[in-house]
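Input/output pair, single chain:
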Amino acid sequence: MCALCGILGGTDHWTDAIARPGVFTRNTDAASRRRERLHRVAAANHVLKYYRMTLADWQGTSFVLSTATGKTEMVDDLSHLWSAAERLGGQPCDPLDDRLISGLESGLV
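Output:
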């Protein structure tokens, strides 16, 4: 999505399913939107495990990113996740890293 569409679209992040007239989503009820959000958290946690971090939903409005040593940071939406992970972990977090992808494919991560 381009930046202009993101601004004109409202305050919701473009990846979040919302129930609003004129917005297409297969998740029209709150329970299915919540399930979809939790699936995104689970997918992010598969990658974050490689960096010894976890992501948790916080009241359906933002996320809490935590390191293995207990450092935490609130993350507004998933577009801010990787920069926050790099800040907390003190290292680059590349979800396309070859070792990470190999670990995910082999089930080790």
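The two ends are 30 Å apart (CA to CA). The longest helix spans residues 30-48.
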